[in-house]
Amino acid sequence: MKVAKFGGSSVANAEQLRKVANIISDDKERKVIVVSAPGKRFSEDIKVTDLLINMGEAYLSDQPYEDKLEIVLNRFKEITTELELSTDVIDEIKLGVERIFASDQSDELKMDAIKATGEDSLAKVLSAYLQSIGMDAVYLNPKEAGIFVSDTPGSAQILDESYDKLYELRNRNEIVVIPGFFGYTKDGKLITFSRGGSDITGSIVAAGVKADLYENFTDVDSVYCVNPNIVKNPREITSLTYKEMRELSYAGFSVFHDEALIPAFKADIPVCIKNTNNPQAMGTIIVSKKEPQPNPVVGIASDTGFVSIYVSKYLMNRELGFGRKLLTILEDEGISFEHTPSGIDDISIIVRASKMPKEKEERVIARIKEELHPDTVHVDRDLALIMVVGEGMDSTIGLADKATHAFAKANVNLEMINQGSSEVSMMFGIKASRVEEAVRSLYDMFFCDK
Amino acid sequence: MKVAKFGGSSVANAEQLRKVANIISDDKERKVIVVSAPGKRFSEDIKVTDLLINMGEAYLSDQPYEDKLEIVLNRFKEITTELELSTDVIDEIKLGVERIFASDQSDELKMDAIKATGEDSLAKVLSAYLQSIGMDAVYLNPKEAGIFVSDTPGSAQILDESYDKLYELRNRNEIVVIPGFFGYTKDGKLITFSRGGSDITGSIVAAGVKADLYENFTDVDSVYCVNPNIVKNPREITSLTYKEMRELSYAGFSVFHDEALIPAFKADIPVCIKNTNNPQAMGTIIVSKKEPQPNPVVGIASDTGFVSIYVSKYLMNRELGFGRKLLTILEDEGISFEHTPSGIDDISIIVRASKMPKEKEERVIARIKEELHPDTVHVDRDLALIMVVGEGMDSTIGLADKATHAFAKANVNLEMINQGSSEVSMMFGIKASRVEEAVRSLYDMFFCDK
């Protein structure tokens, strides 16, 4: 049994939904379908969920919302017209929205229900369409499916008992279409997952039904081994482990929402990235373990936007608690640190620039000076991190040699090397202006035949 | 003006003291001499200070001490006899000890005074000897010299006002011989520095008189660029910076007590390591800055006895405070950590094995599991650290390449690479069993002409 989830771009309009229908009919094992709300049809377009949020905020601040509702309805009308479906579903959407507004729930809960309307409606539209072309498919509301969550609007947590209930879906013969992004509390309140939550639904459902495979249909053929904006036509990754995926997505590969995969990961369900627009392509499969590969490196990720805080003090390593006090200062400011390469008398803290705007930086530096009395402290705002990732990393002699050689060939100075904790990656810090040359050189070293 | 300090082995017996006298007379600038207590004359010998401690402990626990005192006196008698000096100084030593015992000070202060007897007596013997061979030399007690310290027996801290008083030594014509290791509180109590404190005295005096050079006479020609037990006849280091010295001494090069150099460092006094037994050898000079060298690497230090605690948890980097809580657990157990290479979902804490005996390790692991709920935690007790050190490190492209290549050539797997915080070193972690091969390969790479 396979669970197939279709993301926003895959269900953005009628043309896409036709592809979705073909994909479902192509494989009898695709029995459980999870869908997002319609995404962008073209790059300047607005996602349906954003339109809904906009409408909801207008209503809740006592401003006119009717024309915003109309825009949403038109998005669905476009689809139902082209797919020659009845307009019943459009009326349902309108009624549903008005019922939500009229209900006596809190504003928070009303907002969650409004946000979920896009997924819910698209699921109804899709199942209507599948029926119209003769497939045995039904819409299934998350409450009926068994997606029970905590009472935390906007950041639902799945309750353990859901998984047993979801397993019962295996007993059904027909194809079920479940809207992603939301679940219900035991007492019937609609609660959404955090943004990007259709991925979470898909993962939860795949874990619940103990799927053989969870297919995540998106708009790329596969995960590439390097950013295709830096290296043209890079190699595709056939398979990667969860650990490798985490390391790569850390520094730039964001195929989907990180936390979304946890349920599938825990239940050991393989995940496959597929392209709705090219479903025949193999895609990239994500597994918990894989056989050792000839090439120990699976990918190279890179990201700019890192900052380094450098602190030095003679005999720093004799001061018990120095490192901990330094981290506490950052924690007080809500800054999660990324890494802390340290020397004998010095330490650098690597943080994401977005976590430390100028005024926070000033406070942090002032506290460091006042509380720790360092010899020097300075901030370097110009840092990029490059991760060389692969399960073969920890047992392959000479990988660090090759990687550092690639940087030397590109004449790039290494500001930082951090390797050893992770068994699947090596991390390098360089000046942000040199990222492209460095990545190309690494690609050449690890992915091109000599 | 030069300050020359002579360590234990340099003043162990009459033969050594003759060499000391020659060294002093060889250079008119050597006006201020600091001495240790007589050290070992041969490898199974006992240092005079240890004999004194032994004697002091016997007395303070009401046990017979007289024969222990006799042994101490004989050590000095041996010297005075061979150097044909009067035995007055022996009587002085005996009287001094008995006066200390009879005084109404605390046991703690009595012990400090006993401990200091070795340096104090040797300074008197040396100045008597210098006078006997016609040199214009005097013994100078630290109180007269101006070495004023805090009232903290066994771990004196120099008071700032000492420096101005010490500066007055420049006005003297004669050579002054000052015993190392102790000073006096403003109200006249004798307080010792921590062990190895003659180095501290020398450094303080050199800073106080604003010496042109502080010569530290010991029993090696120079600091070598690598452990001579691993590489035979290694290159000698001509000059190193304070930073480089700190990095090297971290992982094995311990020519002298680290903290000892702080006063000289702060006053920007160059320090020269010299060999009493071969004073013509250039020695190694330690400075605060030096010109860029053709070889950016100055030395390779290595040390076994490190332990790594590895902790991993999916989405660890999202948990604000995870790293800080981990460090707090170690701090509660009094374990100072050395380094924390971290990945995305994992972190390793490198500590010295001596800081974490088995029962502490068990407590730490138990707390980590209980408080942090990691996916995995394990300890690797087999780790060695190798530091490649040199001021040229941070601006030389390709150094990491060469270093990692040296490891690959020796077929040594790199467990850890930590570079970036320190601007003068790169740190590598490997299995302790491979240290010698790795160090030889690095030596070959960085110090042998091709």
From TrEMBL, chains A, B:
Pfam families, alphabetized: AA_kinase, ACT_9
ACT domain sequence ranges: 388-450
EC number: 2.7.2.4
Catalytic reactions of this protein: L-aspartate + ATP = 4-phospho-L-aspartate + ADP
Pathway assigned in UniProt: Amino-acid biosynthesis; L-threonine biosynthesis; L-threonine from L-aspartate: step 1/5; Amino-acid biosynthesis; L-methionine biosynthesis via de novo pathway; L-homoserine from L-aspartate: step 1/3; Amino-acid biosynthesis; L-lysine biosynthesis via DAP pathway; (S)-tetrahydrodipicolinate from L-aspartate: step 1/4
Entry keyword S-adenosyl-L-methionine: no
Biological function: Catalyzes the phosphorylation of the beta-carboxyl group of aspartic acid with ATP to yield 4-phospho-L-aspartate, which is involved in the branched biosynthetic pathway leading to the biosynthesis of amino acids threonine, isoleucine and methionine.
Family membership: Belongs to the aspartokinase family.
Protein name: Aspartokinase
Organism: Gracilibacillus marinus
Biological classification of the source: Bacteria, Bacillati, Bacillota, Bacilli, Bacillales
